[in-house]
Design goal:
The protein is built from six helices and ten strands. Strand 3 and strand 4 (about 40-45) form a beta hairpin. The longest helix has 26 residues, at about 200-225. The protein is about 35% helix and about 30% strand. With about 230 residues, it is an alpha/beta fold. A five-stranded mixed beta barrel has the order 5-9-8-6-10, surrounded by four helices. The chain has one domain (about 1-215): Rossmann fold (3-Layer(aba) Sandwich). The structure holds adenine (ADE). The site of adenine (ADE) has 14 residues, from strand 5, strand 9, strand 10 and helix 6. Adenine binds near residues 151, 170, 195 and 202.
């Protein structure tokens, strides 16, 4: 099977590339795509650059140009749910765009006509992720992930996203990837390790924990690939 493994930043895919003996690269649409064989699978790996637009472009390219039949996203997130501590893993049950706002026309936050506030992730992949967590003896939380083109470092904004979307974590790419996969009928999983808690210390914590949390997430994703 051809499996896409994507992140947003170089730090999110470097731990994956380190595990490969050999790989090839293809430059396309101002981005670099890495192809490799891993066990019985073909992997296509890329980081998109930060945000909804770049991540949608990369997800669509992984599927349409490189033939990905399944997409696994690995990266870091800001925690909202107080149970989520730095380094903890969360897999999205459903995802939404917290910065999408046409409420002026009477629509709910996160909604545009012919879209949906929430996009559900693939239940089978989630079950497989929970089984992998069990086999590794680590805790994997399931929850709502909210996406927006904002680095959130404010208790006020974080509380608003929690109140409106009941989100457990937030980041900047998951929902755009989910929208693309959903539209193209490709099963997807969005996995994140917490790098900060989206409060006034978020910038400092993000810089401090990006590498270690990205590695935690990438290690888990590769365990999943091995069991698919
Ligand atoms: N990714 C990791 N931490 C984040 C934050 N605080 N805001 C947005 N995206 C993030």
């Amino acid at each position: 099977m051809t499996i896409a493994v994507m992140g947003a930043m170089p730090e999110e895919i470097e731990p994956i590339l380190k595990r490969l003996d050999t790989y090839e690269t293809v430059d396309y649409a101002q981005n670099r795509y890495v192809t490799a064989h891993y066990g019985s699978h073909k992997l296509v790996i890329a980081y998109s650059k930060i945000g909804k637009v770049f991540s949608a472009l990369t997800a669509a390219t992984l599927i349409e140009k490189f033939g990905a039949e399944l997409l696994l996203f690995s990266g870091v997130a800001g925690g909202i749910n107080p149970e989520l501590k730095i380094g903890d893993l969360i897999v999205a049950t459903k995802l939404c765009q917290h910065d999408l706002d046409i409420t002026a026309f009477g629509h709910p936050y996160g909604y545009v006509p012919e879209g949906a506030v929430f996009i559900k992730s693939d239940a089978t992949l989630r079950r497989q992720a929970m089984a992998v967590a069990k086999s590794m003896n680590i805790e994997l939380k399931e929850g709502v992930i909210a996406t927006g083109d904002q680095f959130v470092a404010s208790l006020e904004r974080k509380a608003w996203i929690e109140k409106v979307f009941h989100a457990d974590a937030l980041e900047m790419e998951g929902t755009s990837v989910a929208v693309v996969c959903n539209a193209l009928d490709i099963p997807f999983l969005i996995l994140r390790a917490i790098s900060d808690t989206a409060d006034m210390d978020a910038g400092f914590d993000f810089d401090t924990f990006l590498k270690s949390s990205a590695e935690t997430s990438a290690d888990f994703i590769m365990k999943m690939v091995e069991q698919l």
